[in-house]
From TrEMBL:
PANTHER family in UniProt: AMINO ACID ABC TRANSPORTER PERMEASE (PTHR30085), AMINO-ACID ABC TRANSPORTER-BINDING PROTEIN YHDW-RELATED (PTHR30085:SF7)
Record-given protein name: Amino acid ABC transporter substrate-binding protein
Signal peptide: 1-23
Domain Solute-binding protein family 3/N-terminal intervals: 41-270
Keyword list, A-Z: Signal, Transport
Family: Belongs to the bacterial solute-binding protein 3 family.
SMART domains attached to this UniProt entry: PBPb
Record-linked InterPro entries: Bact_solute-bind_prot3 (IPR051455), Solute-binding_3/MltF_N (IPR001638)
GO terms classed as biological process: amino acid transport
UniProt keyword Nucleotide-binding present: no
CDD domains assigned: PBP2_BztA
Pfam families, sorted: SBP_bac_3
Length: 345
């Protein structure tokens, strides 16, 4: 049927008007921030088998650097670091859990790579730990370097970057080896300990933590070679820029706090500092919380809950822990390390 021009215009106007009304009335997908606030709890995906990063604390919660970063986000968003529900995830299930919305943020020693950043529908928000892949062998095995692992069986975690790195390293050097994969770090470590594998490979820090869990730690040693770069950080779903900013800037706030001398113990008192950079960080001036959809004291809440990045590191991985791992590249840029964050301004 054909309509005169006036009728066609009227019908077009009606259709456009209906579309606009429909668009206005159609409920928008809730942001992660809105979901977390409505729920009253942050759901955080975590590796449950890695001392120093994520381990059960015996009281129904978790301890470690990853666990503290989860608490920092909860404090920034909900004003209470205790409002976290930890979800233990294996390497093969971690990204699916994030993609599906089962967790709000993933703190799982996930390496930042191009394929993960572009092909999984997730975004790494920053780097909270600089690591590299290494190999552990049985002491007395006469394996002094990676070239001595020709024909060896190597235990590793399934679905981790360790698989690809090990394959690339040995293939390009013409060294044959047998990869033996497991769902999580504990299974791989147990297989190594039982003699199922000649070597165990993972991030160097993970190996240091795993060694402490072995029945006979002195019977294992880590080879000196590091075969990869492993920048690790929190991950969120793509498409929610506001939530990405919150997780990213919570990490940045902890790093900036260390540079500015703001600690867990003095954070609330420092809110009255005369230094403008500290006052902006802690919300005394600037009104910067609005840009994140949070209260102006969001960073103060996070720092008062877990401390600055240096405190979190030392407590879980450094001098105050059983691991005694040197800061190395994870030291502040002011002390020759790579930890550097944009200013809160």
């Amino acid at each position: 049927m054909r309509f005169p021009g006036r009728c066609r215009a009227a019908l077009l106007g009606f259709a456009l008007g209906s579309a606009l009304v429909g668009a206005a009335e159609w409920p928008a997908a809730a942001s992660t921030l809105d979901t977390v606030k409505a729920r009253g709890v942050l759901v955080c995906g975590i590796n449950p088998n890695l001392p120093g990063f994520g381990m059960p604390d015996g009281q129904g919660g978790f301890k470690g650097l990853n666990a503290d970063l989860c608490r920092a986000v909860a404090a920034a968003v909900l004003g209470d670091a205790a409002k976290v529900r930890f979800m233990a995830l294996t390497a093969p299930t971690r990204f699916t859990a994030l993609q599906s919305g089962a967790v709000d943020v993933l703190m799982h020693n996930s390496t930042w790579t191009l394929s993960r950043d572009t092909g999984l529908g997730i975004s790494l928000t920053g780097i909270d730990f600089y690591d590299g892949q290494a190999f552990m062998v049985h002491r007395g095995s006469r394996v002094a370097s990676l070239s001595d692992l020709a024909g060896a069986s190597v235990c590793m975690q399934q679905g981790s970057t360790a698989e690809l790195n090990a394959s690339d390293y040995f293939r390009t050097r013409g060294i044959a080896f047998e990869p033996v994969t497991f769902a999580d770090d504990d299974q791989a470590a147990q297989a190594f300990q039982s003699g199922r594998c000649d070597a165990l490979t993972s991030d160097a820090t993970a190996l240091a933590a795993t060694r402490l869990k072995l029945a006979r730690p002195d019977e294992a040693e880590t080879l000196p070679e590091i075969i990869s770069k492993e920048p690790i950080g929190p991950a969120v779903r793509k498409g929610d820029d506001g939530w990405f900013d919150i997780v990213r800037w919570t990490l940045f706030a902890l790093i900036d706090a260390e540079d500015l001398g703001v600690t867990r113990a003095n954070a609330r008192g420092q809110a009255a500092s005369k230094l403008p950079e500290i006052r902006r960080l802690l919300g005394t001036e600037g009104g910067l919380g609005k840009g994140l959809g949070l209260a102006d004291d969001w960073a103060l809440s996070a720092i008062a809950a877990v401390g600055n990045y240096g405190e979190v590191f030392d407590r879980n991985l450094g001098a105050g822990s059983a691991l005694k791992i040197p800061r190395g590249p994870n030291a502040s840029w002011l002390k020759g390390g790579l930890m550097y964050a944009p200013p809160v301004r």
